[in-house]
């Protein structure tokens, strides 16, 4: 699969056949060990979650700080394996300034029989949105963060990809307010014949159509953005349900019981349950998000509480057919102040081929598929790394002369 003769390469950049000398072990946290290429130094744990452990590191070839994510037990069951495959393929496919970039991917194992670990190397950011939400944000920052979320989402949707798991912990920022979306293990292709499962997205940011098993369209992501928007204003989760059923209750208590026309589109069993719930009139958006929650007007009166509230009211709409679209949101006065066509309409990626992950595979079959994808990527990176090293060598020679 690789060239028969391994090329000597400094700092553990993987080129040619793998050898144990290219990797080294680093303990991370109390019970995790990273086995990484020697090009990555000074590893420090920066977080962990259901999808894996993440470390910061310094890449001696790119000469920059990076984040390294070790996928957590990607082959313990078919669901984890499918998520690992999907996340890697989507990260390798998309290319937009508001979506986290895949800088490298590798496995220290040489054969599919040994294959147990996948490492994804990404840009290193300063914080996730959970930390930012606790700060006092002015209209410029709130509006600009939302604009970037919408640009990233639009890029995903242009490839037929619905993120499905947008939440503050899956959105990362830098101190200059630049924002990127990450974690695509639960992303799904639009228009496929698929019924949402209740655990697909984090409960608090889950759209009504997902909760009620109606299927979904790409503006399911808009509901999630609306929940995040509201949380930036309140400083607390907007719809904090204790379980799947209570989540629906929290939504209708604030927004009101939806129309009969909406109810008629539900599955009979779901419709019976929803119809038998107490009816709620809901509250006006001004009461849910009063002026006191908003910062002072800014941008010469372009960014105001009234404009922000108007956008929020169009995002937090129970009926997805009446909810604002990504394109409409990007053209809303509260967002349009940042409009840059090169960001909004960046070249679309290739449409994601969902034919593999729509099929049922055994764990061993998923393992084979992921191993093939990762080793194919390693081969591509082998060429790119050699080019980088040669450029650095030429530059050093020029400086010496």
From TrEMBL:
Xref: SUPFAM superfamilies: Protein kinase-like (PK-like) (SSF56112)
Entry keyword set: ATP-binding, Kinase, Magnesium, Nucleotide-binding, Phosphoprotein, Serine/threonine-protein kinase, Transferase
Q: Where is the Protein kinase domain?
A: 40-335
**GO molecular function list:** ATP binding; MAP kinase activity; protein serine kinase activity
* Catalytic activity reported: L-threonyl-[protein] + ATP = O-phospho-L-threonyl-[protein] + ADP + H(+); L-seryl-[protein] + ATP = O-phospho-L-seryl-[protein] + ADP + H(+)
Xref: Pfam families: Pkinase
Give the superkingdom in one word: Eukaryota
TM stretches of this protein: none
Cellular compartment(s): Cytoplasm
Matches recorded under InterPro entries: Kinase-like_dom_sf, MAP_kinase_CS, MAPK, MAPK_JNK, Prot_kinase_dom, Ser/Thr_kinase_AS
Q: Work out whether the entry's keyword set contains rRNA-binding.
A: no
The broad enzyme category this protein falls into is: transferase
GO terms for cellular component: cytoplasm
Q: What EC number(s) is this enzyme filed under?
A: 2.7.11.24
**Cofactor(s) the record lists:** Mg(2+)
PANTHER family per the UniProt record, alphabetical: MITOGEN-ACTIVATED PROTEIN KINASE
Q: Which family does it belong to?
A: Belongs to the protein kinase superfamily. CMGC Ser/Thr protein kinase family. MAP kinase subfamily.
Instruction: Please explain the role this protein plays, according to its UniProt record.
Output: Responds to activation by environmental stress and pro-inflammatory cytokines by phosphorylating a number of transcription factors, and thus regulates transcriptional activity.
Q: What is this protein called?
A: Stress-activated protein kinase JNK
Species name for this entry?
A: Brachionus calyciflorus
């Amino acid at each position: 699969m690789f060239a028969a003769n391994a090329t000597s390469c400094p700092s553990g950049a993987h080129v040619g056949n793998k050898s144990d000398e290219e990797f080294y072990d680093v303990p991370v946290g109390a019970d995790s060990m990273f086995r990484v290429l020697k090009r990555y130094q000074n590893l420090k744990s920066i977080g962990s979650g259901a999808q894996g452990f993440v470390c910061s590191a310094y890449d001696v070839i790119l000469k920059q700080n990076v984040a390294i994510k070790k996928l957590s037990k990607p082959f313990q069951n078919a669901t984890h394996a499918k998520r690992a495959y999907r996340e890697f393929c989507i990260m390798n496919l998309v290319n937009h300034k508001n979506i986290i970039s895949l800088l490298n991917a590798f496995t220290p194992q040489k054969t599919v029989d040994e294959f147990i670990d996948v490492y994804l190397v990404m840009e290193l950011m300063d914080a996730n949105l959970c930390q930012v939400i606790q700060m006092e944000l002015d209209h410029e920052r709130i509006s600009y963060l939302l604009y970037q979320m919408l640009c990233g989402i639009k890029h995903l949707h242009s490839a037929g990809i619905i993120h499905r798991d947008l939440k503050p912990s899956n959105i990362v920022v830098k101190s200059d307010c630049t924002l990127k979306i990450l974690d695509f293990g639960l992303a799904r292709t639009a228009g496929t014949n698929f019924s949402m499962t209740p655990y697909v997205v984090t409960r608090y940011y889950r759209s009504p159509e997902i909760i009620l098993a109606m299927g979904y369209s790409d503006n399911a992501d808009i509901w999630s953005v609306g929940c995040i928007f509201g949380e930036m204003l309140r400083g607390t989760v907007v719809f904090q349900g204790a379980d799947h059923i209570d989540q629906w209750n929290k939504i209708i208590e604030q927004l009101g019981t939806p129309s009969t026309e909406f109810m008629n589109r539900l599955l009979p069993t779901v419709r019976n349950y929803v119809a038998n719930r107490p009816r709620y009139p809901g509250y006006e958006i001004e009461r849910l998000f009063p002026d006191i929650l908003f910062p002072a007007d800014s941008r010469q009166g372009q960014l105001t509480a009234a404009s922000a509230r108007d956008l929020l009211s169009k995002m937090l709409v129970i009926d997805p057919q009446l909810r604002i679209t990504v394109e409409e949101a990007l053209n809303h006065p509260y967002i349009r102040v940042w409009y840059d066509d090169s960001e909004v309409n960046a070249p679309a990626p290739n449409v994601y081929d969902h034919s593999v992950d729509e099929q049922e595979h055994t764990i061993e079959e998923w393992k084979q598929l992921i191993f093939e994808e990762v080793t194919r990527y390693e081969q591509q990176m082998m060429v790119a790394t050699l080019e980088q090293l040669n450029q650095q060598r030429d530059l050093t020679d020029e400086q010496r002369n």
